[in-house]
Specification:
alpha+beta, single chain, globular, about 30% strand
């Protein structure tokens, strides 16, 4: 298929690191091997350049089985992308209680 990767240019970080409010403690603390499913989920968003524009991919993985339990794509990186992915995971896993959802 002759697929080629295209090296991305560096993006300047525009976050003001002097602002320290809204910092949440790292509850996961690098404990990546839970004893049972639906106790620890991790999530992230990445972007994919298509022939027309950017496409954003939001994914949630259950650390117990290391499987994707929800994924959504969108042309926009907004709260709807995150909420729709979260809803999909909750519905697929029948609304488990006490799930730790970790993101960086």
């Amino acid at each position: 298929m002759r697929l080629l990767s295209k090296a991305a240019h560096k993006v300047k970080n525009n976050i003001d690191t002097s602002l320290h409010h809204h910092i949440i403690p790292n509850t996961l603390d690098r404990q990546f091997n839970p004893d049972k499913p639906n106790t620890t989920w991790v999530t992230d968003i990445t972007y994919i350049k298509t022939g027309e524009s950017w496409l954003y991919l939001s994914v949630i993985i259950d650390l117990y089985g290391r499987k994707v339990i929800a994924r959504q794509t969108s042309r926009y990186i907004d709260r709807h992308l995150v909420c729709n992915t979260s809803k999909q995971a909750l519905f697929r896993r029948h609304f488990p209680k006490d799930v730790l959802i970790h993101r960086d």
